[in-house]
């Protein structure tokens, strides 16, 4: 098969499978079929749909706002908005992340471009870990997902703001302003450049719609996977085991951090998955999931290794993991 046709063929197959998946879950009544399904599978179906349908509106809102920023806000403007002093600039960098709702799916290449245009490495890191969480859309989705437990939404924003500054400061101490962006021209970078050039030929409306649709289907795959795995965990994992793991104040945050890393959910939707574990896992472990996942997950780790030097990525992963874990343990001890 022609190499130029193969990627398109894979995309068509992928979209077809997603469409079939939605059709089966939304329009087929399994209870009326001629064969009997185990009650556990019907429970999985119910929990999966409840998570998915609550999350989709926030994803749609998030991708369109992100697309507008991608099209109409330049990286040069972001760079000019930051002070020159390395330490003083940490606070504005965190505040900047709160203004621009960029999903973690898109934040890595954006930060790479900012650094190549002159933004200091540690400020790029602040933006990298803060922007996916510190924005109104993520706050609204978290606030809505946890219902009466509104303190979780405020705690998530507060922790993300403070930790983004701490992580940026640690990276500054370790690397100063050393260049950690890979110099060689990789295939992935070439593809992104081609996409950027193609978008520059479009008008701004078409570019916005193109970016929004592309990001929606990219995030949708991870949302479906995460919601499905969460519903499986809730249905089939022994409740006694789950309760024992979730009530352990030292172990449960680490478990939920690992869960957040593997699921690689979008930050606009992860609160709905986290809320499904409410009452089983501690509040601190839910916060660990909500803070750690957007900062560091499987999909953006792959992109980090593609764009940045290996030593920097490893140090960054260790710093984020240790800081998030210790901060959630401290939050549990002092505030709960």
**How many β strands by DSSP?**
0
Number of separate helices: 16
- Shape field: globular
The whole-number mean of residue pLDDT values reads 78
Task: Report the biggest beta sheet as strand number plus sense, adding barrel if it closes.
Answer: none
Oligomer: single chain
Low-confidence spans? 184-195
Helix content: over 70%
Spell the H/E element sequence. Answer: HHHHHHHHHHHHHHHH
Number of domains: 1
Radius of gyration equals: 21 Å
Q: Classify the secondary structure makeup into a structural class.
A: mainly alpha
**Percent of residues in beta strands?**
under 5%
Distance between the termini: 59 Å
Plain-language structure description:
Helices cover 76% and strands 0% of the residues. The chain has helices spanning 5-27, 39-72, 75-80, 90-99, 104-116, 121-130, 136-145, 151-175, 187-200, 204-236, 239-247, 251-263, 270-275, 283-295, 298-307, 310-335. Helix 2 packs antiparallel against helix 7 (136-145) and helix 12 runs parallel beside helix 14 (283-295). Belongs to the UPF0718 family. It is found in: Cell membrane.
Quickly describe the structure.
This protein is mainly alpha-helical and 336 residues long.
Defining key terms:
336 residues, mainly alpha, 16 helices, 0% strand, membrane, DUF318, UPF0718, transmembrane
What is the topology?
Elements: H1 5-27, H2 39-72, H3 75-80, H4 90-99, H5 104-116, H6 121-130, H7 136-145, H8 151-175, H9 187-200, H10 204-236, H11 239-247, H12 251-263, H13 270-275, H14 283-295, H15 298-307, H16 310-335
Helix pairs in contact: 2-7, 2-10, 4-6, 4-8, 5-6, 5-15, 6-8, 7-8, 8-14, 8-16, 12-14, 14-16
């Amino acid at each position: 098969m022609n190499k130029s046709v193969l990627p398109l063929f894979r995309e068509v197959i992928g979209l077809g499978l997603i469409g079939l998946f939605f059709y089966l879950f939304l329009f087929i009544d399994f209870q009326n079929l001629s064969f009997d399904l185990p009650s556990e599978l019907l429970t999985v179906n119910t929990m999966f749909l409840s998570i998915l349908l609550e999350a989709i509106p926030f994803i749609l809102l998030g991708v369109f706002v992100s697309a507008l920023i991608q099209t109409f806000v330049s990286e040069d403007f972001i760079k000019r908005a930051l002070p020159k002093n390395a330490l003083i600039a940490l606070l504005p960098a965190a505040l900047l992340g709160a203004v621009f709702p960029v999903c973690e799916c898109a934040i890595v290449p954006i930060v790479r471009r900012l650094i190549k245009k002159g933004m200091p490495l540690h400020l790029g890191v602040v933006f990298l870990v803060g922007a996916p969480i510190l924005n109104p859309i993520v706050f609204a989705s978290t606030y809505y997902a946890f219902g009466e437990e509104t303190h979780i939404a405020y705690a998530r924003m507060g922790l993300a703001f403070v930790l983004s500054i701490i992580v940026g400061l640690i990276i500054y101490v370790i690397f100063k302003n050393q260049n950690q962006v890979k110099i060689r021209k990789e295939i992935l970078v070439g593809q992104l450049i081609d996409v950027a050039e193609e978008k520059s030929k479009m008008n701004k409306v078409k570019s916005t719609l193109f970016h929004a649709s592309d990001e929606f289907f990219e995030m949708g795959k991870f949302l479906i996977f995460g919601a499905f795995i969460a519903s499986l965990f809730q249905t089939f994992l022994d409740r006694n085991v789950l309760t024992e793991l979730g009530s352990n104040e030292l172990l449960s945050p680490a478990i939920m951090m690992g869960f957040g890393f593997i699921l690689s959910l979008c930050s606009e939707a992860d609160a709905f998955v986290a809320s499904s574990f409410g009452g089983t896992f501690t509040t601190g472990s839910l916060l660990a999931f909500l803070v750690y996942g957007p900062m560091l997950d499987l999909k953006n780790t792959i992109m980090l290794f593609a764009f940045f030097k290996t030593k920097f990525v490893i140090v960054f992963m260790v710093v984020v993991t240790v800081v998030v874990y210790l901060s959630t343990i401290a939050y549990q001890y002092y505030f709960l």
